[in-house]
Amino acid sequence: MSGISGLVTNSLTGLQAAQQALQVTGNNIANVNTPGYSREQVIQSTQPPSLLGGLYLGNGTQIDTVARSYNSYLQSQVWSTTATASGANTFNTQLQPLVNLLAGTNAGLSTSIQQFFASGVAQVAANPSDIPSRQNLISEAQSLAQTFQGAAQQLQDAATGVNQQIGQSITTINSLTQQIAQLNVQINSLSSAQSTPNSLLDQRDQLITQLSAQVGVSVLPQSGNQVSVFTGNGQVLVAGSLSFALKTAPNAYDPSQAEVAYAANGAFISQGLQGGTLGGVLQFRSQVLQPAQNALGRIADGLAQAMNTQQAQGLDLNGKFGAVMFQSGAVQVLANAANAGSAVISGSVVDSNALTTADYQLNYNGSNWTATNLSTGQPTIITPGTSGTATTLTFGGVQVNVSGAQAGNTFEVLPTRYGALNFQSTLTNAAGVAAASPYVSSAGQMQAGGLVNANLGNLALSAGQYSATSGSASVVVSGGVNAPTALQITLNSGGTSGAIGFQVTQPGSATVLATGSVTLGSSGTTVAIPYATNTPPGGFWTVNLSGSTAVSGDAFTLSPASGGNGGNAQAMAALQTAKTLGGSSTSIEGAYSQLVSQVASQGNQAQTALSAATAVSAQAVSSQQSVSGVNLDQEATNLIQYQQAYQAAAKAIQVGNSLFTSLLQAVQ
Fold first, then answer.
1. Handedness of CA 388, 391, 394, 400 (dihedral sign)
2. Which of helix, strand or coil describes residue 347?
């Protein structure tokens, strides 16, 4: 088109283009604060020219499309860093209360442990016959049990909170994935080769950003401008028009533990989920909460077994071996829900010194059992045995009794998870504190109801100590006599060198229970008196006879200790620092210090990780916004530019109209 009509037509296209550009600019300004909005811009081009009179004359301009300012790499960085920052924030938020509980300046358990030994046990050791001191020990034991239970209950409450947060996060995820799938359908139907529904694309990207705050995702583009969304471990959440709903499901072994599963088929997908709120709470549960529960339970189990064992070695005010002082939570042995048959299985702690803070998985192939440490993934050595018709499996300080298992059965063993939660003080009678050692070693022999020391040599009999086995004892008392039966050791001959024989009898009895000899000038000879096999803890009370000068007829008496003896209470007090846990590598206090140090270190690391993740996320958003965000200064410039273009096009139309009018007047 040429001439005046060409001028008007071309100017009209410019007018329309400027008008549309102004509309796009106004839309940008209106959405400057809209979350997820990407700045739009018009893509303008020249219309094909026309050949007239040997000349190519232009036909004006056209708007090809309205494109959004978008960079897929920068957007994916926003999704990735959002997931990381959200996960770090959730992990840190969950962790800090545990840091305050276990490592805070007002942490009660450390104080209670110290108070129990210092104000309870030590006072009885110093005043073994004093009833108020004994009653105070009972009170301190009850207070310690309550502190254990209180700390463990807070951890258990945190576990319940994790289950609730998993459910809330899944509800949010399902809502978001459903909306994303619906937008996929709309975008696909509205997209063409020339244009795309930018606002819907922005909405979908914003929904994916919100989804990333719940769980780490990866996004793959599909045909028709649709996307598929997967979790970080490759589980599909959205595929085109389909969304795959999730649900909470009980753990295959532990029904009290919520897991993430597909709603349609129940398949578990918790393993490997990372990032976002969901990944953060799962990480907190597996890396902090459950290890802390196990570590606290191990301390409770260790304290209970150590104190009960020592209590059983001594005598109470009634002259009886001490009854159980503490009871910790039972070993949990959980069957897989898919197990065939009806196996009967239970577990108990047999050696707290061998306990770890790990859980274990037992597998049965029909003939052999295997155990796997779930913390390390490494196999654990099992010592098999039998107890009646049941098979016994001993490993990691626990013994599992099982019968009726079938091939393919699997079980999860939690040795210490509930040790602290169900920790109880069971001794209520002050007279029941076994403060006395089973024997008092004395020189001389009993005559007319009293001890008479007429010894002329320098041999001495040690105070004695407990031993789980007779060990290197040269002489073991037999004849069915057990501690604390009174005994007398009498020398058969004398001298200053060589071996001197002796015999063991009961005072006033000629029945010889054991014979032996002691080499003068040596380290001496150990005599072992067995505890009754049906009386915990079993084992032996051992004494040592030594010296350099012996006189025939010299005698030594082992008599049951009275209430004024505090030998066993002193041994109880020593348990505070004795290395009774971790394969004799740490004490009760040391194990608690390790737990505190571990949780405090994780707390510091979590705060550092959160700061770093937040900074990286902010940088990713800033980079993305530098491309997609609305810049009001730039839009103001565009307004002026398009306004001037509009005015110029309108002026050109006015000129064309004037020329056309003049032409009409000229031909009239």
1. negative
2. strand
Tokens representing 343 are 């196996």
For residue 166, CA distances in Å to 176, 179, 220, 280, 567 come to: 15, 20, 26, 10, 54
Measured CA to CA, the distance from residue 509 to residue 369 in angstroms comes to 54
- 479 and 510 in contact (C-beta within 8 Å)? no
User: By C-alpha distance, which of 21, 112, 6 is closest to 639?
Assistant: 21
pTM as predicted: 0.88
- The bridge status of strand 499-505 relative to strand 487-491 is antiparallel
Select from 646, 654, 643, 637 the least CA-distant residue to 14: 646
Residue 268 tokens, joined = 């578990």
Task: Answer whether 213's CB lies under 8 Å from 82's CB.
Answer: yes
**Vertex 159 angle, CA 156 and 162, to 5°:** 155
Neighbours of 548 (CB within 10 A): 13
Measured over the CA atoms of residue 185, residue 186, residue 191 and residue 197, the dihedral's sign is negative
Please enumerate in sequence order all residues whose Cβ is within 8 A of that of 557, keeping only pairs 6 or more positions apart, or say none. Answer: 441, 442, 443, 444, 445, 446, 451, 486, 487, 488, 489, 507
What is the rounded distance in angstroms from the CA atom of residue 555 to the CA atom of residue 443? Answer: 6
Distances in Å between the alpha carbon of 149 and those of 108, 144, 153, 448?
11, 9, 6, 53
| Cβ neighbours, 10 Å, residue 297 | 30
Interatomic CA distance for residues 115 and 109, integer angstroms? 10
* HSE-CB for 371 with a 13 A CA cutoff: 23
What pLDDT score does 537 carry?
73
Q: DSSP states of 102-137 as a string? A: HHSTT-HHHHHHHHIIIIIIHHHHHSTT-HHHHHHH
- What DSSP element (H or E) covers 498? none
Q: What percent of the chain has pLDDT over 70?
A: 98
Q: How far apart are CA 255 and CA 172, in angstroms?
A: 23
Question: What is the CA 83 to chain-centroid distance, rounded?
Answer: 21
Which whole number is the average pLDDT over 142-158? 95
Give bridge partners of residue 384 from the DSSP assignment.
393
Distance CA 47, CA 194 (A): 16
Is the backbone peptide bond immediately before 255 cis, with ω within 30 degrees of 0? Answer: no
- DSSP one-letter code for 581: B
**Contact yes or no for 59/1 (Cβ under 8 A):** yes
How confident is the model at residue 54, as a pLDDT? 75
Task: Judge contact between 283 and 162, C-beta under 8 A.
Answer: no
Cβ count within 10 A of residue 9: 15
In whole angstroms, what is the distance from residue 9 CA to residue 1 CA? 8
Q: Using one digit for the tens of pLDDT, what is the confidence trace for 57-66?
A: 878 888 888 8
Cβ(186)–Cβ(198) below 8 Å: no
Query: Where would I find the beta strands (DSSP E) of 463-524?
Result: 465-467, 475-476, 487-491, 499-505, 512-519
CA nearest neighbour of 95 among 600, 468, 525:
600
